[in-house]
Amino acid sequence: MTVIKHDVLVIGAGLAGMRAAIEAARNGADVAMVTKLHPMRSHSGAAQGGINAALDEEDSWEAHAFDTVKGSDYLADQDAAEILAREAADNIIELERMGTAFSRQENGRIQQRPFGGAGFARTCFIGDITGQAILHVIYEQILKLGVTVYEEYYCTSLIVEDGVARGVVALPMMTGNLTPVQGSAIVMATGGLGRVYSPTSNALACTGDGMAIAYRAGAPLQDMEFMQFHPTTLKDSGVLMTEGARGEGGYLLNKDGERFMEKYAPNKIELASRDVVSRAEQTEIDEGRGVDGCVLLDVRHLGEEKINERLGQIRDLAKDLANTDIVYEPVKVRPGAHYAMGGIKTDVHGASPVPGLFAAGECANVSVHGANRLGGNSLLETIVFGRRAGEAAARYAKEHASPQPLSESVLQRDQALMSSLMERSHRGDGGDRPAVIRGELGEMMHHQVGIFRSREGLASALEKVRELEKRYQSVRLEDTGKVFNMDLITVHELGFMLDIAHTMISGALAREESRGAHTRRDFPERDDEHWLKHTLAYDTPEGPRLEYGPVTITNWQPEVRTY
Ligand SMILES: Cc1cc2nc3c(=O)[nH]c(=O)nc-3n(C[C@H](O)[C@H](O)[C@H](O)COP(=O)(O)OP(=O)(O)OC[C@H]3O[C@@H](n4cnc5c(N)ncnc54)[C@H](O)[C@@H]3O)c2cc1C
Predict the structure, then answer these.
(1) Catalytic residue ranges
(2) Ligand 1 near 34 CB (within 6 A)
(3) Fewer Cβ atoms within 10 A, N terminus or C terminus of the chain?
(4) pTM score > 0.90 for this model?
């Protein structure tokens, strides 16, 4: 058995993965990235609005940390939120020195726009293509450092021997031959899970793979019930209209032309935190004041010049996908599934409870976002905690380098699964096609595990996911070839999605309170006495087993949250 071997293996090549790889390489490790997409196609490249840091003399990292904690509805671990905010400025300056062309003020300093839930205009941006611009710069560093990239290698599982992470199993799409990849430390950086919902703002590849891989290998997933619905996504496609549109001064209107957010958040209006704005929009729509199941995002008063300079990409997207030119007309938007607050539980160095396994970025839960993430804090998390995880992984790899080769048996489980899929499909006795199950899953999550939840809806979701899991056992492939078998990858991803959805539903059903993005109609209040705690989901043959863990409070006792 030929085995590829490196000190540090990073799974995923978005901003978190690449930032981790850079730091591990700088710390002397031999680093490789395993990625199912070309790095530049990672979802980080779709980020529009910006990245937060307190740069202005009148702002402070403490204010940023407080806004983050308040935004999280007090579920964030405050030590982690402090690190995020404190390390932000240096990381932005480093990105700038690497060559990121941040939008500027007249005086040459980095321009910052106000974002939801923030007490200061602290979101740095490059027009509305922030993620794309930073991804380019970070990728340059990867090339410069000579990090090995296994591109279009789809990771199927984590290799754990004697309780220690030793590598991953990957499927190079080009050959279709399962391959073990050995590493002394593994950093999971596989991004989000938005595709569990339909519609979503997330790219097709955001299927929660790394979360499911870690979960199956014994790592706990934390706070999976918290899913962020972004207030401004396009009606049918779910494509995002950046929060920057409101940051630049855009209005939200109902069918009567009323700026309805004045009722729900009299101080911040459109720039309340995302959970608040999404609930308000859905309430307007449910009570008959929507337009076509949407509300209107109006930026006409900003004028064509500013729209082109700051919001050019979303002008194009709205024209192409909603047939609306935002210079002349408001565009219909509604809340859409956008960001997973939950993920693989880690400490502030990215270490998970499984020795040798680290995680960073959207697939991780440090936890800085708690029950609701602030816009601009996720890109920041990829950079700050990607860096930290890369450094810690390099250190771990140095201390735990094992010359011992992997045993022959590591491929068995994956090989058995692949062969049974192929055989069933050759015999033609399979059941549903993956798209059918995926469609039903997305729709069920949208309706029952959406902005407003209830015991009844969540119980039916639980039943449905169990039914889908059963049907998945006989899912049918049509492509039984080896080379670039995307049908096989889709089927495999669907298995991950079902596992992940199950943890989200179980967590949501158990949590009998409303906090941040998790709103229970039957338990409308936040209940700190019983629920100021993290949910931990562990994999068992019967489905997730839930445990609970403490929230770290440093400076800020929970208060009533208003905007
Ligand atoms: C449309 C949109 C706009 C956004 N705008 C903003 C914004 O303005 N500001 C902000 O702070 N946040 C924003 N976010 C959120 C933010 O962009 C993401 O949370 C963040 O970029 C995630 O980065 P990541 O590195 O964790 O994952 P990603 O960038 O998603 O990268 C994941 C990587 O993992 C790899 N991968 C996944 N599964 C496997 C597998 N099984 N095997 C091998 N490789 C795998 C992929 O190939 C990819 O390289 C936005 C998100 C979306 C969807």
Answers:
(1) 230, 246
(2) yes
(3) N
(4) yes
